[in-house]
Amino acid sequence: MTSATRLMQQQAAPFREGPDVDGFGVARRLNVPVWVFDVDESRIVLANPAACALWGASSEEVLRGRDMRSDMSSTVAKRLKQYQSDFLTSDETFTELWTLYPNGEPRSVMVVYRGYVLPDGRMAMQCEAVSETQDQPQNLRSAEALLHTDVLISLFSHEGPPLYLNPAARNSFSTHNLSFLSLFVDYRDCEALKEQLELLGEHRTVARIHTVAGQRWCDLSAKQCMDAATGMPAILLTAIDVTELKEARDTARHLADRDQLTGLYNRAYLQAHMTKLKQNRKARKSAVVFFDVDRFKLINDRLGHDAGDRVLQQIAYRTRAQLRPQDLVARLGGDEFVILFENVADTKDVEQRIARLSQALSVPVSHGGGEIDVSISVGIALFEPHKSEFNDVLRDADIALYASKQGGRNRATVFTEQMGTAAKARDDLELALKDAVDRDEFVLHYQPRLDIRSGKVVAVEGLVRWLHPDKGIVMPNAFISVCEETGLIDKLGRRVLELGVAQAIAWQEAGLDLNVSLNVSPRQFSDDRLLRTLEDLAAQPGFPTGKIELEITENVLSGDTQMVTRKLRKITEMGYRIAIDDFGTGYSNLSSISRFPLTCLKIDRSFIAQLPYSGPIVRLIITLADQIGATVVSEGVETEAQLEWLARHHCAQAQGYLMTHPLPPEDFIAYLQKGAAGC
Description:
Layout: E1 2-6, E2 11-12, H1 25-28, E3 34-38, E4 43-47, H2 49-54, H3 60-64, H4 74-89, E5 92-100, E6 107-117, E7 123-132, H5 137-148, E8 152-157, E9 162-165, H6 167-172, H7 187-200, E10 202-211, E11 214-226, E12 233-241, H8 243-257, H9 267-279, E13 286-293, H10 296-303, H11 305-322, E14 328-333, E15 336-341, H12 347-361, E16 365-367, E17 370-372, E18 376-383, H13 390-406, E19 412-414, H14 417-438, E20 442-451, E21 457-468, E22 472-474, H15 480-486, H16 488-509, E23 515-519, H17 522-526, H18 529-538, E24 548-553, H19 561-573, E25 576-583, E26 600-603, H20 605-609, H21 615-628, E27 631-634, H22 640-648, E28 653-654, H23 665-673
Parallel strand pairs: 18-19, 21-23, 23-24, 24-25, 25-26, 26-27, 27-28
Antiparallel strand pairs: 1-5, 2-5, 3-4, 3-7, 5-6, 6-7, 8-9, 8-12, 10-11, 11-12, 13-15, 13-18, 14-15, 16-17, 20-21, 20-28, 21-22
């Protein structure tokens, strides 16, 4: 049994109970088909002869034996439950066109429905077939579709009350005090829709509406029309529930816009927001604040990535807590964060906000029963939104951040044009260095190391120089730091080793007995490729085993002691010697120095320059070198007085401008041939 569109307005009528036992005596004598349907059991419980004929049943008993549930769709079942609920609270009647299927044959009938109380007190439905229609198949089918569709279709008067609700709408909307306006969760959505209806006659939007299941997102399509029954203006509203789709899209958008670790916005969202801000001609001066966590790599390396993640999450939480709702904060990746302040007054305003933020972030982060100290370095760039490009503003803030790092960290710096000029020069230098590495424009100059007791040159240190095609010799202090920061030090370091080993082989073949000392940067030492490079060089014919000394800085020893020891032992097993450069200025544990296979300690030049005041430190280093069986070398010797002091205190070797400044290979040979120190 199915139903279709309601054709008539609801009418008032009392419940029907006859004076006879079953309350159905009068109905049995009517020629009009009348039956009583038990909604709960889905069975006809009473029927007059005309109803039996309509349903194709030979008797009332046969008809009562039919289970209507097997031929009933879920939509019809819901519709009948709606009627039953209405009958319990009112005495209304309903007239609708229904299509019945007696013995599988469709019959379209106009039916009047009333409430009927069964003897056990349950509410049933009395059905009266007032006429049988021979409507066109197309109309009947459209009526059936209207009944069964899950789309919520409703007709509202212009004043607001509903004129018609299809079964899906009736099942979804609470009919108590229902109006067009009351459907909407946000009245502004209703007002905007009606405004568009007045302008265009139709409108489509997505809005939240009230349903019996709670607030739901619906795709709404509304049209101005006329009520067919009264000729008065009306609104035809079609609603499709898109809550799951919208929530899925919102989730996908959230995932696309958010950083998964911290929940902050990501770079893509920040860039899109900046693009919108640029298009806003009313936007005033704004500020981008670029900050990162000082020595964050050390936190990861020493405490593990769990600790690093904990720090980043706390940074995100505390930052968000310090900002206003309209401020935007994003994580670009790693330990890099960006804050966007819109409509700022001036630089001082931003600096005050950042000072409060830095103070909040400086509180140690708890992790694993301990605490992690945190500080940030900050770069600030002010800009006019409609005049600036996102990448340019971010670059300026990054330049200011770099200045904060160079200034000692844990501070904020505001971008200036002078910084931009310096950064441009640095970028140009980086590009030039990349080309220089590719074109092999680097050479080694050699500075001798003098055996203080014999006066002979016993070793040399190879020091890199950039042979610039236009500027000539460029000293390392002008480019080494850039190479370290950009990673070019890996290629440059390998080239230094290749040049130094090749020169040592050539001098050995020429009969010169010299140790050649070559510098290895901390970054290069931590790279696993270093061992392969050294193996390749040691495999060359004529490799001077025991004559190549690799100089590493003292700070290299402060990392993973076991890893450093294993790597140093592998290097010495290949035939290399190990020297500690600038000894005394790092953070190594003096008690652990003996664990490493060291062959030389080079006293930092700052101690030699302060002799005799630094004498106790120098003597301590000389004694330490003697205890671990390492040669001690004093760097930066520039006066005879310094050399004499070192000789009195049994320093083995000296290196510095007193002997000579670093020389190209050919000039170094000439220096030896002059007999300046003998060899």
